[in-house]
Amino acid sequence: MIIAIDGSAASGKGTLAKRVAAEFGYDYLDTGALYRAVAFSLLNAGANSNKIDEKQAVNAASTLNLLLTQTAEIRTDKVAALASIVAAIGPVRAELLSLQRAFAAAPPSGRGAVLDGRDIGTIVLPNADLKFFIDADLDIRAKRRTKELLQAEQSVMFRDVLAEMTARDDRDRTRLVAPLKAADDAITIDTSKMDASEVLALALSHINRVCPSEQ
Ligand code: DC
Prior knowledge:
Blueprint: E1 2-7, H1 13-24, E2 27-30, H2 31-44, H3 54-62, H4 77-86, H5 90-105, E3 113-117, H6 120-124, E4 130-135, H7 138-151, H8 158-174, E5 187-190, H9 196-210
Parallel strand pairs: 1-3, 1-4, 2-3, 4-5
Helix pairs in contact: 1-9, 2-3, 2-4, 3-5, 4-8, 7-8
Bound molecules: 2'-deoxycytidine-5'-monophosphate.
Residues 9, 31-32, 35-36, 80, 83-84, 87, 117-120, 168, 172 line the site of 2'-deoxycytidine-5'-monophosphate.
């Protein structure tokens, strides 16, 4: 079973994806971490975030050290903003595509895979067994992200997080390659007024309907 979970920043898609994977013993791939790791390695190499060299970005994607995806250093708003910029470069996306598809085709557990991102249901895995599209009001998402960053002891202000998220949403939704959008066959969940347990319960009810043997 392959489950695709797309959505906007701080919509709750990552939490849902991890919980669904844990529920069934499936493997989870956070594809945003791949783009963040590319951005982080570019920043480390001294790249100027106002003017990214496409060749350098493609090279960073093709030589990506996957251990970077597990580090806390990629979880800053600066890295997220650059990740969204490099993610608009078609050849960067092409470099990361086969890795994502290979993970879904042969998840380490041999049971199933849950991938979350922006284009999983539309481009990466159009034949996924089940697709979710997770979204929430911008203000609520910015509040959630501010809380998360403060908990991670990063000094941030709501106003800046909101501005960064607005710009990132806009870039992710309007780029020409693989923009953030719901697949035609995705189930949309608006998490604005739901907590993580309610979102999980709703998603599980859909999974149970589509594939009762997984419960
Ligand atoms: O999910 P995230 O916030 O960690 O993602 C960081 C950025 O990476 C996001 O703003 C856009 C990009 N991204 C993408 O373009 N496609 C994906 N499948 C996942 C992330």
